[in-house]
Structure formats: structure tokens, C-alpha cells
Specification:
The longest helix is centred in the N-terminal third of the chain and has 21 residues, at 2-22. The protein has helices at 2-22, 29-47, 59-64, 81-89, 127-136, 163-176, 207-217, 222-234, and strands at 70-77, 96-103, 106-114, 141-147, 182-189, 192-199. It has 2 domains: 2-46 and 205-234, no CATH class; 52-199, Cytidine Deaminase, domain 2, CATH 3.40.140. The chain is elongated. Helix 2 crosses helix 7 (207-217) and helix 2 crosses helix 8. The mean pLDDT is 92. By secondary structure, it is α+β, with helices and mostly antiparallel strands. The chain contains 8 helices and 6 strands; from the N terminus they run H-H-H-E-H-E-E-H-E-H-E-E-H-H. The chain has a 6-stranded mixed β-sheet.
Length: 236
């Protein structure tokens, strides 16, 4: 057993030594772009961090939700909003859709409407209406949540998006990203939210800023080159 461990350690040290010797060089342009993309992705993921706590809905508001569709002024944080929306959709027997408009990690405008039946839902706001609303206050993001009613949660799992959900998200993305608005979509089931789609506009944490920073650090000294390579290869 000890001999096996020593062999594993030896192989690891050999691999590490080879990696160090071959990665003291500066990053290439393609490697800089790859690392910049990774940094940007992680920054975006950090921005869109949500509370997993299950919250209790405002019962009076839940009863008054306009099935035909209506805008509501709200005061929610970005991190809490998906949980709040999921609580409003919990136990709904029809599909509903909730759209939140976010800026500075605050949601102050929300739209919701009921679907036609238990199996499908679509926004009564057209894409052009959503774009118009997003431009009103120069919103950063549009968050779209809808529920999948589950009549038998012991046997069925409706947490995953349908093909229609994915196609709809792709259509909204094509309209929102070019005007500088991010899109995030969720499925809600039994009071919990499950993100399945996120697409950030190119102007949100522009990748060129990360490229410029890495370029300035690159080829300054070998230890810095090595650190950049470690981040590029091993950091998630």
C-alpha cells in the first residue's frame, strides 16, 4: 500500500514538474482569450447568485394575481427574487409566467400572466413589449420564471425545461442581448427555482477588459506566466 502511494506521489510530482517547465512561457493570444472568457464567465456567475431559501408568499398578493397579465411595482433583491417568484407559483394548477426587470441587483418591476392550460404558458407581453419595458430604466437583466405543475411529485420530476422552453429562451435572447440586456430563465416546481438558461450581452463585463488585464500581466516574469497558466488550465 505504501509503495502504491509513493508511486502515485511520484507520478504527480513528475507531472507537476513537467507542467511547470513547459508553462513558464507567456500565454499566447488564444490562451489569453480563453482565460479572459473564463474570468468573465465566473464574474457573471457571481453576479447571478441566488438564495436557495424557500420563502412564504404574500397570500393576499397571490390571490390577487391578474391572470390576464399585469405589471406590478416590487421591491426585491436579485438574489431573493427567484425564490419569491417560485413561492407565488407554488401549488398553481395552471402554468404561469413571471418576468422580472433587474438593475443594480434590484427588481422593481414585474409582469405576470396565466397560461392557457396546465401544459403550456407564454408571455402575454410580446418580445417588443419586453424590449420596450427593459429600455425604460436601462435595465440590466430580464428574468423569466414559469412553473411546471406536478400532479404527482412522488413519481414525476418537472424541473427540466421543455424543448419549447429552450426555443423560447433562444428567441428572447436574440432580441434582448443585442440591446445590452441579459436574459436568465428558470423553471419552478413546488416552490423551488431551477435556472436553465443564462445569456449575457457582450456589453456586460466586456471580455476586452479581461483581455487587457491579462495582457498587462503576461510576460512580466516567469512566475506570473506560470500562475496565469495554472488559472487557465485548472481553475473552474
Amino acid at each position: 500500500m505504501i509503495e502504491f502511494i509513493l508511486i502515485i506521489v511520484g507520478v504527480f510530482l513528475l507531472f507537476l514538474g513537467i507542467f511547470i517547465l513547459t508553462h513558464l512561457r507567456p500565454l499566447t493570444d488564444e490562451e489569453i482569450k480563453s482565460l479572459a472568457g473564463k474570468r468573465r464567465k465566473n464574474q457573471i456567475r457571481f453576479y447571478y447568485t441566488y438564495s436557495k431559501n424557500v420563502v412564504s408568499p404574500d397570500k393576499d398578493f397571490k390571490k390577487s394575481m391578474n391572470s390576464a397579465g399585469k405589471f406590478y411595482n416590487v421591491d426585491e433583491t436579485l438574489s431573493r427574487f427567484p425564490s419569491t417568484a417560485a413561492s407565488l407559483l407554488k401549488y398553481k394548477k395552471h402554468e404561469w409566467i413571471i418576468i422580472g426587470f433587474e438593475k443594480d441587483k434590484k427588481i422593481d418591476l414585474m409582469w405576470l400572466n396565466k397560461g392557457f392550460n396546465r401544459a403550456s404558458v407564454s408571455s402575454n407581453l410580446t418580445l417588443s413589449n419586453i424590449i420596450y419595458a427593459a429600455k425604460l430604466k436601462d435595465y440590466t437583466s430580464v428574468l423569466i420564471l414559469h412553473n411546471h405543475p406536478n400532479w404527482n411529485p412522488n413519481h414525476y420530476n418537472f424541473k427540466k425545461p421543455s424543448e419549447q422552453d429552450l426555443q423560447s429562451a433562444n428567441d428572447f435572447m436574440k432580441g434582448l442581448n443585442p440591446i445590452g440586456v441579459n436574459l436568465v430563465e428558470f423553471v419552478c416546481e413546488r416552490g423551488t427555482h431551477h435556472e436553465y438558461f443564462i445569456s449575457a450581452a457582450d456589453t456586460f463585463y466586456p471580455v476586452t477588459e479581461y483581455i487587457d488585464k491579462i495582457t498587462s500581466d503576461n510576460n512580466q516574469k516567469k512566475s506570473k506566466n506560470l500562475a496565469l497558466h495554472f488559472e487557465r488550465v485548472f481553475q473552474i
